[in-house]
Amino acid sequence: MMNDLWNEENLYIVAIAVLLPLTAGLVIVQVNPYYALVMRGILGAVAALVYALFGAADVALTEALVGTMLSITLYAIAVRSSLIMRLGIIEPDLPPEDLLQTLRQPLRPYHLRLELVPYPDQESLQAALEGKEVHGICFSQAAVKTPAPQYEIQTRVPRLYQILSGHLPLEKMAILNPAPPLTPANSL
Amino acid sequence: MNGIIIAMLLALLIPIYEAYRDSHIWQKMLAFASIATKTSMMILVVSVLRDDWMIGVVGVLILSVGNAALMLLAHVIKRSDEAGLYEP
Q: FRET label pair with B76: which of A34, A68, A69, B17, CA 20 to 30 Å apart?
């Protein structure tokens, strides 16, 4: 069998089979989860080619249908809905766009997305934070009468506080330390 | 037979290198589209050369399914793109 594989007639099979570890290595070195998903699709296409070349047509079809199409789609949806910070805001009192940009900046290295969830008033905002509908809430300090309103972010997730603190312009946006230590009850 | 397949293999290496090198998500998707089409075309060529219609049918199915997976993934990434994750 080994001699069969290495003769000149079957050289192309060996050359194509080498692509499989090559593309698998490309999947491993990806840092961004979305890039890794695209690379997994490439790996699935190459794997289907190798399986078909070795005569395993059924395995190739399963790899293309389940291993590539279904798993990529499900993982893309899972990554998209888990790598997210849901921030509750009060609808008429939106923070300006440049403040949101400075908020997105420290989240970017962690591939976290910022999603704004609007609420009608302060009470429902607090209730959403306590009911764990959102990871954090953002509201303006009504008591401080400065020309530029100061915003405060309150989060129930200590890890988000660690990521965000020290990266925000304090004169425009402050973040409150979530007081209780990390317990299963207030983790993500 | 060897010559055709080796030439197709060399053509396949170009989008793989492109997917490795380029850091933009849509460039990687383009490379994925190119690779998905090229691999299924290779399956079709091998099936014709071997006169094996079982592999041929699977090649046609993979050709269509690979593009369906690409469209589904592109749709999810486009929604993330609109949410501002991939701004330069």
A: B17
Q: Does any CB of chain A come closer than 8 Å to the CB of residue B78?
A: no
Distance of alpha carbon A39 from alpha carbon A25, whole angstroms = 10
Interface contact B43-A49, CB threshold 8 A: yes
Residue A68 shares a structural domain with residue A91: no
Q: Which domain holds residue A141?
A: 84-176
Q: Give yes or no: residues A88 and A164 share one domain.
A: yes
A68-123, pLDDT tens digit by residue?
A: 889 998 998 898 888 888 888 888 777 777 778 888 888 888 888 888 888 888 88
CATH number at residue A155: 3.40.190.10
Contact A38 B29 (CB under 8 A): yes
Write down the pLDDT at residue A32.
87
Domains and CATH numbers, chain B: 2-82 (1.10.287)
Do B43 and A53 lie within an 8 Å CB cutoff? yes
If DSSP codes are grouped into helix, strand and coil, which group holds residue A119?
Answer: strand
CA distance A69 to chain B (A): 5
The residue length of chain A stands at 188
